[in-house]
Amino acid sequence: MDKSLLVKIIGYPATLIHHDTTIIDRWLWIKNRLPKTNNKEALLDIGCGTGAFTIGASLRGYQALGLSWDERNQKVAGERAKICNASTATFEVQDVRHLHDRKDLFEKFEVAICCENIEHILDDKKLLKDIASCLKPGGYLLLTAPYYHQRAISSSDDGPFRNIEDGGHVRRGYTMTMLVELSEFAGLKIEEISFCNGYLSQKIAKLYRELSKIHSLLAWLVILPLRILPLIFDKAISKFFSSNDLTICMEAHKPRFKK
């Protein structure tokens, strides 16, 4: 099956609807903090998956490099970048646990993105410090991760969590305090910590994950017409329905000046 067929039909938006609704939530959070540019700023996407956010950044004017250990994902990402005419998006196979070996990336980027990746890495302190080393002074990091106090929408969100890095989550998630600690260790200054999943988005994501137990295509087809609802109604509905967010989001900056 052609993994990029839908992208060929409808373009870039298709890269954001291959899984549940939380993908779009994260992209909208990133997009709001990623102004369009004609200045060719360099952006690093750590753990880029099949490249949706790397491609999106490229289409906003960034010289975007996506890193992932998965060769298959990187091949798909490259194909989708070409289809979307994201000419400034490139992809490399790289285990981010060894990002410190990439001296060629040191202080090269104005922006770094790390979405739903850090919870897979045992030494999260090292990863964040390595990401910070790739930022130029004044650069900023956009990071998302599972929220520690989330109300789980699938059984795997409650564990068991691994003590080895085999692709699964090695921890439940992060609180605000945990992200502050990590940022301080990495030498970053937090601009904002927030959340990005609305009430309807979480309910639809839960439906998707339940139906995926039967078949992933069934899940995708059922929620396809529902995807528009969070975009229209979630902001208003959140005033009436409390939702324990799935995703915690952090924007942090690397100081421009050394002490």
Offer a concise description of the structure:
The protein is 35% helix and 19% strand.
In total, the number of strands is 7
Instruction: Supply the CATH architecture.
Output: 3-Layer(aba) Sandwich
Query: How many domain modules?
Result: 1
Strand order of the largest sheet: 3-2-1-4-5-7-6
User: Based on CA inertia axes, which overall geometry fits?
Assistant: globular
Separate helix tally: 9
How much of the sequence lies in strands comes to 15-25%
Tell me the span between the first and last alpha carbons: 55 Å
Radius of gyration: 18 Å
Q: Would you mind describing this structure in some detail?
A:
This protein is α/β, with parallel strands linked by helices. It has helices at 5-10, 22-31, 52-59, 71-83, 124-134, 176-186, 199-212, 216-223, 228-237; strands at 42-46, 63-68, 89-93, 109-115, 135-146, 189-195, 247-253. The protein has one domain (5-198, 246-253): 3-Layer(aba) Sandwich (Rossmann fold). The chain is built from nine helices and seven strands; from the N terminus they run H-H-E-H-E-H-E-E-H-E-H-E-H-H-H-E. Strands 3-2-1-4-5-7-6 form a seven-stranded mixed sheet, with helices on both faces. Helix 5 (124-134) packs across helix 6 and helix 7 runs antiparallel to helix 8. The protein is globular, with a radius of gyration of 18 Å. The chain starts with a helix and ends in a 6-residue tail after the last strand. The model has no long low-confidence stretch (mean pLDDT 94).
